[in-house]
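Weekly modeling sync, notes
Attendees: S.R. (lead), two postdocs, one rotation student

Agenda item 3: backlog of single-chain predictions. S.R. asked that every request posted to the team notebook include the full sequence so nobody has to chase files. The rotation student volunteered to paste the first one in as an example of the format we agreed on. Action items at the bottom.

Example entry:
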Amino acid sequence: MKTYNVAILGATGAVGREMMKILEERDFPVGELKLLASARSVGKLLPFKGREIAVEEAKHDSFAGMDFVLGASSNAVAKDMAPYIVEAGAVFIDNSSAFRMDPQVPLVVPEINAEDVKNHHGIIANPNCTTIITTTAVNALNSLSPITAMIASTYQAASGAGANGPVELMAEVEAGLKGEIYEPKVFVKQLAYNVIPDIGSASDHDYTTEELKLLNEGRKIMHLPEMKVTCTCVRVPVVRSHSVSVTVQTKDKITVEQAREVISKAPGCRLVDNLAAHEYPIPLETSDQDLVYVGRIREDMVLDNALAIWCCGDQIRKGAATNAVQIAECLIG
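Predicted structure, as returned to the notebook:
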């Protein structure tokens, strides 16, 4: 079997570690695995397939001989390293937002637009985690009638802010039980016993950068340049797995029964939709796996030709690490 040399840029972070786990789980044909991070992590040993691999410092000359570089680093690092990755002949599958809206860079969810990987020039972008979860959940509706608009509210887990997010959440809970005050460092306000409608930074028209990602990225992934989207992103005191409430409006009417049928057969989805039996997607049941659970499908009572939908997915796996590995799988056939 042909093998491929893979580097993980940002290997010590939550997504980088998950990428290692996914490569092993999916039995990706890895020849050499190179783990790259900042200088402070050099020498740290991380397990992979029964052995330990030492972390190396990410430098401009780190990519010789690599076939794929899976990026789990910041925008700044991604932009700095990208030219050297491409020059070395590797394909950079980047999880940052640095290249997502570059018209020369494919933005890919393999269940939706796998064919777009063919158009790469050395860089392929991994979409935002909430965009991946939402578009995976609703894309099948396009086979019945094109989506014209989406209205979404997200319920994003603490781990979406990185490995320190859940740590801070638990520290706040413990402090609250003792009647103490914990000064937040990861989140802009206390997350425990609270929700925070403020993810990303302030952008145009008082939307946050996180909220605009679903608009811009969703259009590119589903090839719907005219689709309208409004979104409110909210951080909730959940450890893992993002949830999204989304109203989807289509050109023509789609019945609830038709929607359930196509979503139940859609790649990457699992239909969980029986309100009477209290069966619907929840974060605890969607964590640490790769399917997007979809349920609570019902006719919207305000808009014509619209359905209200609830979905959940693990934002570290399908929303980041797994999607990146799936992109690499598309490239090796």
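Discussion: group reviewed the output briefly. The chain has a mean pLDDT of 97.
Action items: rotation student to repeat for the remaining queue; S.R. to check formatting next week.
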